[in-house]
Amino acid sequence: MRTSLSFSLIIAAWTLPSLALAQPSAECGPYDFDAQAKAQVFTIKAPTPKQPVSFQSEAKACPAQGECGWKQRSYLIPGDTVLAGPEQGGFRCAYYVTAKGKPLAGFLPAANLEPAKGEKGLDAAVLAGTWVYAENEIVFTSKAGGLLHAEGNATAVVNGTANTGGFAEDVKPGGEELRIGDPKEEDECLVTVQRRGPYLLVSDNLQCGGLNVSFKGLYIRKKK
Questions:
Q1: What residue ranges in 4-62 does DSSP mark as E strands?
Q2: What's the pLDDT at 151?
Q3: Phi, psi of 119 (to 5 degrees)
Q4: Can you tell me the distance from the alpha carbon of 9 to that of 113, in angstroms, rounded to the nearest whole number?
Q5: Are the CB atoms for 180 and 127 separated by under 8 Å?
Q6: What is the pLDDT of residue 119?
Q7: Which helix (H) or strand (E) holds 38?
Q8: Residue 204 exposed, middle or buried by CB count within 10 Å (0-12, 13-18, 19+)
Q9: Which residues pair with residue 163 across a beta bridge?
Q10: In the 8-state DSSP scheme, what is residue 7?
């Protein structure tokens, strides 16, 4: 991931790309979990190895000359991985999460997206580590007997008040889906984890903490 340096607050390009002045349309937003759950895994490709591919707030080509008001500041480079939805007039709505857990979304040219292997296995080697999404964090720590200790913390700000929630449980990794909690206990926290390439797609039953607290989202492994 790379970010333009042409705005006032200069930040590390590979960690925290800026949001575009033109925000993504309602049909392509960073918090559309249902769309992300149906999306496929793609890698970015371009004619040259370092050529950037910019996110757009609209699914239409920029003019050959002049400004492009729907072109965002955030962009990707070949090799970056996204989730993307169905093609719309030569574009796809794509979802990306930065190394710090910041979710981004926007339209990308379909010609710059190449289908990738959507690995789904959830063994200990894949899960072990710290995963982040916005203010949420899930940590998987290896234990004896092939188990993992799963511990999560989530925050939701409602009317200026920070509501929190969390879970802590030992789990047995393996298969294509991991459940944390007892599905028979409807009033207790239940978290479901699936893999989408380098991401974890996480959902819950909204019983994991205070008002509006949820672990739902697209998580990326935090770099050490």
A1: 40-44, 53-56
A2: 98
A3: -55, 140
A4: 30
A5: no
A6: 83
A7: helix 33-38
A8: buried
A9: 156
A10: S
